[in-house]
Amino acid sequence: MSSVTYADSPKGLSKEQLFAALANAAAGWGSVKKVLLIPPDYTRFHSGAGMITNFYYHFFKDRAQVDILPALGTHAPMPDAELNEMFGDIPLDRFLSHNWREDVVKLGEVPTAFVRDVSEGLIDQLIAVELNRRLLDPSYDLILSIGQVVPHEVVGMANRNKNLFVGCGGSDMINSSHMLGAFYGMERIMGKDHTPVRKVFDYAEEHFFKTAPLIYMLTVTTATENDIHIHGLFIGRERELFERAVALSQEKNLTFVDVPFQRVIVNLDEKEFKSTWLGNKAIYRTRMAIADGGELIVLAPGVERFGEDPAIDQLIRKYGYVGRENILKLIEENDDLRGNLSAAAHLIHGSSDGRFTITYCTQKLSKEEVEGVGFQYMPYEEALQRFWLGRCVEGFNTYSLGSGYYYISNPALGLWADRRKF
């Protein structure tokens, strides 16, 4: 049974409305004995998935075994403090951890001809379809994939089967899908459905996971600091529900500008963003709104490393954010980069290709480390003082005699773009 619940209030669904919608949906699922919940990790804290996961744990726990597998993808496992903050009072022994290198089973392949067709000839190779082995356990009679539909730099709009084939997927799919998106072009993808990467995920689901007892629970959210507003809840397997969620996210999460910004300052919450692998959302989500010759300043008090994975961290330190054409050349010349295409794609995404400057303002990475990967550096405290950031508001700010900047408190919640580039 599928359902759609929209918020009447600008502040989103109340908890009572949300929980009623979740309970009504579950009434149509019949009796279950073993449930697997697949929420995002802490980097999607504002998805509302923590509340939904907590609700369903308590809904099922007295009648079924409930396991929870956060969709980590290549991200670092969640420490206990993050699990507690995001998911509440769920016992820690109910959580499983996904290892994208070791925990997966190959289901099949997306054919070369299909990949070549959807990529318009840019990629000419098959893509292996891998999933965490737990999703294939026949003892689960219900799998709930929970998460937020929001603009995304690799697939266009996050969630649905991305939660499975990347969040719970293996190295080949992760590497290949990221490189497919990078080759095709981030600015052709972000904020849109039916992208080449999405078509690959749809193919994989249709051919290799169609009969699974799977239900998607998709949210569209905005947030004021940590106050999450769920504007829509879409429950079901039908693709049409995802398309409706995409349309609502395009309404709620896209900000169009008529005149490109000369200076943008983006804040990265120190609890959520600990690496440039995650923090470069500040670049991805604003690049279409920044003028040529402009400036992006990234406030990154919690960023302490480059990659979430130690091996990828070393690759980022080795090659740096040196631009698309340089990275494509380096892929051809270096086996280590060619063997980690998701890292190569990330390096492409994290450069402005010389179009605007990128300054990271850190406390835990040194000037030498930041400049060593190709960014400019400014001490975090200096940035706070220089731009009067204690007094800023979301959006445009003027801080001295005509000088101004556009401030974004959380880049993970949206996409900012010049209308002419979207």
Which short descriptors sum up this protein?
Rossmann fold; 2 domains; 6-stranded mixed beta sheet; alpha/beta; 422 residues; 2-enoyl-CoA Hydratase, Chain A, domain 1
Strand order of the largest sheet: 1-10-9-6-2-3
- Overall geometry comes to globular
CATH architecture of the largest domain: 3-Layer(aba) Sandwich
| Rg calculated over all Cα atoms | 21 Å
Computed structural class = alpha/beta
Q: What proportion strand?
A: 25-35%
Low-confidence stretches: none
The amount of helix comes to 25-40%
Named CATH topology of the largest domain: Rossmann fold
Could you give me the name of the CATH homologous superfamily of the largest domain?
LarA, N-terminal domain
> How large is the count of helical segments?
17
Reported for the largest beta sheet, the result is: 6 strands, mixed
How far is the N terminus from the C terminus? 35 Å
Q: How many discrete domains?
A: 2
Task: Write down the CATH class of the largest domain.
Answer: Alpha Beta
Please tally the β strands and state the result: 18
Quaternary state of this entry equals: single chain
Q: Please tell me the overall pLDDT.
A: 93
What does it look like?
- It is built from 17 helices and 18 strands.
- The strands form five sheets. The chain has a six-stranded mixed β-sheet.
- α6 (171-184) packs parallel to α15 (341-349).
- A hairpin with a 2-residue loop joins β16 (395-400) and β17 (403-408).
- It has 422 residues and is α/β, with parallel strands linked by helices.
- 34% of the residues lie in helices and 25% in strands.
- The two termini are 35 Å apart.
- The model has no long low-confidence stretch (mean pLDDT 93).
- It folds into two domains: 3-254, 3-Layer(aba) Sandwich (Rossmann fold), CATH 3.40.50; 258-421, Alpha-Beta Complex (2-enoyl-CoA Hydratase, Chain A, domain 1), CATH 3.90.226.
